[in-house]
Amino acid sequence: MNWEQLKQSSLEDITAWAESQPWCQAMSDCAQDAEWHSEGDVWTHTKMVLEQLLELDEWPSLAPNEQIVLIFTALFHDVAKPLTTEVDPETGRVRSPKHAVKGEHVARSVLRDLGCDLTTREEIARLVRYHGRPAFLLERDEPTHEVARLSWLVNNRLLYLFALADTRGRDTDSMTRPEENLHYWKLMAEEAGCYDQPYPFATDHARFTFFRLREPNLHYVPHEDFSCTVTLMAGLPGSGKDTWLSRNRSDLPIVSLDDIRSELDVEPTDNQGAVAQLAKERCRELLRAKKSFAFNATNTMIQTRGRWLDLFADYNAQIEVVYLEPPFENLLRQNQTRSKAVPEPVIHKLADKCEPPTWLECHSLVIEECLYKPRLT
Question: Where is the HD domain positioned along the sequence (predicted)?
Answer without folding.
Answer: 42-142
